C-alpha cells in the first residue's frame, strides 16, 4: 500500500519540434531568447516523458532520477524551477493554514522517457515540462499553463512550448525580468488534426555540441545570426501563425524548411563552425525535395534540431506519397512503431534519387511515425 506520508502527483508531457527555431539567448541566467519560436506538439502515444513528483517529511534531500539514473540537480536551471514552484506553494500555504506544508519538504522526482534521451529528440523539453507540471499538480498550484511555461523556460527554453498541445508559440518578450517571455497556444491539435510527423533517427547518440553551448557560440560569432533574429524570424512568425490558422500546408512546409536551413546556416557561420546535420540528414533533404518536385507542390517538410535526425511533417491525405516512399526506401528497418506505421503502403520512389535513398537507408536506424498531439496529461500511474 502507498505510504500515506508521501504526497505524489504524476504527469505525462509531450515532445515538441519547432518549425521556427529558437536559437540564441539574450539572458543566460533567465533563459530569455533572442527570437520568438513556434512548434508542433507531438503525440504522447509515441514520445513522452512520464514524471512523478513526490514529497514527504521523511525525505532528506531533493532528488531526480531519470530512466533509473540519479541526475545532478544542483545546476542553476533546475534550481530556478524548484525555487519558483516552492515560492508559489508557500503562497498557497500562507492563504490556507490547513493545507500541508509541502514547500518545506524535500522532493523526490522520478522520470522515464519512452525515447532515447538527448538524441536530438527534444528530451529536455518534455523533461522540464513534465517536471514543472508534476510539481505544480503536487502543490495544487492555481497557475495557468502560460505561467508554468515561464517557469519551465528557465529549465530549458524549448520546454516552455511543451506545456501546451497543438501548435504553440513562445513569445520572446521584451521585459528584462522575463515576465513576458512565455508560451501560448496558436491553435489546438483539433484545429489541424491530420498533421503527421515522421522522425528518421539518424543517431541515438548524445549530441556533439549541446544546444546551450552551440547557440551561445552562434550569438557571439555569427553575423548572419543577427540578421536572422532581427529580420527573418519576426516576419516568419507572423506568416507561420497565419498559415496554421488557414491550414495552408504548402506555406507551412515552405517556411518550415527555410527556417531549418536558415538556423543550420547560422550554425555553419559560427566560428568554429557547429555541424548538426550529417550526410544522412542531407540525404533526407534530397528525398523530401524530390517528393515535393514530383507532387508539383510542397507535400512534406523537413526540419532538423541540434542533431542529425530528420523530422518530416506531412498531412495524412499524402501519407502514401510521403511515408509510402520513405517506407519503400527504409522498409526493411525496425521501428515502424505504431499500427499506423505498419499500415503504410510502400510507394514507388521518384526517379533520380537512388543515391540519396541509398545513403538514407545506410544512415537511418529507426523510424517513429507520429502526429500532432495534446498537452500534458495527469496520470494516476505513479513511479514513486
Ligand atoms: C534547435 O531548449 O534545448 O531544438 O534553453 O539551452 O535548454 P536550452 O536549449 P534547448 O534548445 C532547443 C533548440 C532547438 C530549436 C527549438 O526547439 O526551438
Automatic annotation (TrEMBL):
MF-aspect GO terms: ATP binding; diphosphomevalonate decarboxylase activity
BP GO terms, sorted: isopentenyl diphosphate biosynthetic process, mevalonate pathway; sterol biosynthetic process
Alphabetical list of InterPro entries matching this protein: GHMP_kinase_C_sf, Mev_decarb, Mev_diP_decarb, MVD-like_N, Mvd1_C, Ribosomal_Su5_D2-typ_SF, Ribsml_uS5_D2-typ_fold_subgr
Pathway listed: Isoprenoid biosynthesis; isopentenyl diphosphate biosynthesis via mevalonate pathway; isopentenyl diphosphate from (R)-mevalonate: step 3/3
Residues in Diphosphomevalonate decarboxylase-like N-terminal domain copies: 13-183
Catalytic activity as recorded in UniProt: (R)-5-diphosphomevalonate + ATP = isopentenyl diphosphate + ADP + phosphate + CO2
Domain annotation Mvd1 C-terminal: ranges: 197-377
Segments forming a coiled coil: none
Keywords: ATP-binding, Lipid biosynthesis, Lipid metabolism, Lyase, Nucleotide-binding, Steroid biosynthesis, Steroid metabolism, Sterol biosynthesis, Sterol metabolism
Entry GO CC: cytosol
EC number(s) given by UniProt: 4.1.1.33
Family listed: Belongs to the diphosphomevalonate decarboxylase family.
Protein name (database record): Diphosphomevalonate decarboxylase
Origin species: Friedmanniomyces endolithicus
Amino acid at each position: 500500500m502507498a505510504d500515506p506520508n508521501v504526497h505524489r502527483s504524476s504527469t505525462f508531457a509531450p515532445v515538441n519540434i519547432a518549425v521556427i527555431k529558437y536559437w540564441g539567448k539574450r539572458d543566460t541566467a533567465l533563459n530569455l531568447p533572442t527570437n520568438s519560436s513556434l512548434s508542433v506538439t507531438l503525440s504522447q502515444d509515441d514520445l513522452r516523458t512520464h514524471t512523478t513528483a513526490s514529497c514527504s517529511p521523511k525525505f532528506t534531500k531533493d532528488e531526480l532520477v531519470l530512466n533509473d539514473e540519479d541526475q545532478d540537480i544542483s545546476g542553476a536551471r533546475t534550481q530556478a524551477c524548484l525555487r519558483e514552484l516552492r515560492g508559489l506553494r508557500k503562497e498557497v500555504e500562507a492563504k490556507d493554514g490547513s493545507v500541508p506544508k509541502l514547500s518545506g519538504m524535500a522532493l523526490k522526482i522520478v522520470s522515464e522517457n519512452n525515447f532515447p534521451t538527448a538524441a536530438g529528440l527534444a528530451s529536455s523539453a518534455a523533461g522540464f515540462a513534465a517536471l514543472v507540471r508534476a510539481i505544480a499538480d503536487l502543490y495544487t498550484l492555481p497557475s495557468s499553463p502560460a505561467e508554468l511555461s515561464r517557469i519551465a523556460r528557465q529549465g530549458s527554453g524549448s520546454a516552455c512550448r511543451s506545456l501546451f498541445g497543438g501548435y504553440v508559440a513562445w513569445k520572446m518578450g521584451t521585459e528584462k525580468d522575463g515576465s513576458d517571455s512565455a508560451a501560448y497556444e496558436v491553435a489546438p491539435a483539433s484545429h489541424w488534426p491530420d498533421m503527421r510527423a515522421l522522425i528518421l533517427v539518424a543517431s541515438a547518440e548524445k549530441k556533439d555540441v549541446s544546444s546551450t553551448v552551440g547557440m551561445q557560440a552562434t550569438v557571439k560569432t555569427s553575423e548572419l545570426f543577427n540578421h536572422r533574429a532581427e529580420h527573418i524570424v519576426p516576419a516568419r512568425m507572423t506568416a507561420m501563425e497565419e498559415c496554421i490558422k488557414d491550414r495552408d500546408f504548402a506555406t507551412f512546409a515552405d517556411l518550415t524548411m527555410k527556417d531549418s536551413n536558415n538556423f543550420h546556416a547560422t550554425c555553419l557561420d559560427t566560428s568554429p563552425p557547429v555541424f548538426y546535420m550529417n550526410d544522412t540528414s542531407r540525404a533526407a533533404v534530397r528525398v523530401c525535395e524530390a517528393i515535393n518536385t514530383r507532387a508539383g507542390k510542397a507535400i512534406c517538410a523537413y526540419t532538423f534540431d541540434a542533431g542529425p535526425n530528420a523530422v518530416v511533417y506531412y498531412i495524412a491525405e499524402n501519407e502514401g506519397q510521403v511515408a509510402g516512399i520513405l517506407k519503400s526506401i527504409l522498409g526493411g528497418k525496425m521501428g515502424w512503431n505504431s499500427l499506423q506505421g505498419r499500415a503504410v503502403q510502400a510507394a514507388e520512389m521518384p526517379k533520380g534519387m537512388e543515391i540519396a535513398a541509398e545513403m538514407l537507408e545506410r544512415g537511418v536506424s529507426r523510424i517513429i511515425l507520429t502526429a500532432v498531439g495534446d498537452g500534458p496529461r495527469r496520470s494516476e500511474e505513479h513511479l514513486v
